[in-house]
């Protein structure tokens, strides 16, 4: 397994966003399943990924089911719950030769899950903004 993916698993397991500081490239591009345009830059990507970890990482529910790694690209399939909605999705991660993530795309199904993520992420980002984390 790639050290990038090992580090990503550690971040998800510990919910420690500070570990992203050395993992994300300054010009990383984040593709959200609910935001129309790609988000560019380390700061905004870390913000979205931190919020997503809080929303998607329901205790005892978030699991990676499968992963495929080919060179500097990985696809990680996950499942979790938001309330009573089962979320199935994939994280598509690409990194450079320095071991920094340059592209992170999240795809989710079904539509009910996308709607639940959209609402929960909006609430989480507002909460983070109120606490001065944004």
Structure commentary:
It contains three helices and six strands. The protein has helices at residues 3-14, 42-56, 111-130; strands spanning 24-31, 39-40, 63-70, 73-82, 85-95, 101-109. The chain has a six-stranded mixed β-sheet. The longest helix is centred in the C-terminal third of the chain and has 20 residues, at 111-130.
Features:
single chain; 134 residues; alpha+beta; six-stranded mixed β-sheet; 3 helices; 36% strand; globular
Main beta sheet strand tally, sense and closure: 6 strands, mixed
Q: What is the radius of gyration computed over CA atoms, rounded to a whole number of angstroms?
A: 14 Å
Percent strand: 35-45%
Number of strands: 6
Placed side by side, the strands forming the largest sheet appear as: 2-1-6-5-4-3
Order of helices and strands: HEEHEEEEH
Fraction of helical residues: 25-40%
Total helices: the number is 3
What is the distance, rounded to the nearest whole angstrom, between the alpha carbons of the first and last residues?
Answer: 33 Å
Judging from the principal axes of the Cα atoms, what is the shape?
globular
Topology:
Elements: H1 3-14, E1 24-31, E2 39-40, H2 42-56, E3 63-70, E4 73-82, E5 85-95, E6 101-109, H3 111-130
Parallel strand pairs: 1-6
Antiparallel strand pairs: 1-2, 3-4, 4-5, 5-6
Helix pairs in contact: 2-3
Concise synopsis of the structure shown:
It contains three helices and six strands; from the N terminus they run H-E-E-H-E-E-E-E-H. The chain has 134 residues and is an alpha+beta fold.
């Amino acid at each position: 397994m790639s050290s990038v993916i090992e580090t990503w698993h550690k971040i998800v397991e510990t919910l420690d966003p500070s570990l992203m500081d050395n993992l994300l490239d300054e010009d990383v591009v984040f593709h959200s399943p609910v935001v129309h345009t790609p988000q560019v830059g380390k700061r905004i990507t870390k913000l979205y990924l931190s919020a997503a970890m809080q929303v998607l990482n329901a205790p005892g529910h978030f699991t990676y089911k499968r992963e495929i790694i080919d060179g500097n690209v990985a696809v990680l399939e996950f499942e979790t719950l938001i309330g009573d909605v089962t979320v199935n999705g994939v994280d598509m991660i690409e990194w450079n030769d320095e071991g920094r993530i340059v592209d992170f795309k999240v795809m989710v199904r079904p539509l009910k899950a996308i709607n639940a993520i959209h609402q929960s992420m909006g609430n989480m980002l507002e909460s983070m903004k109120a606490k001065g984390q944004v």
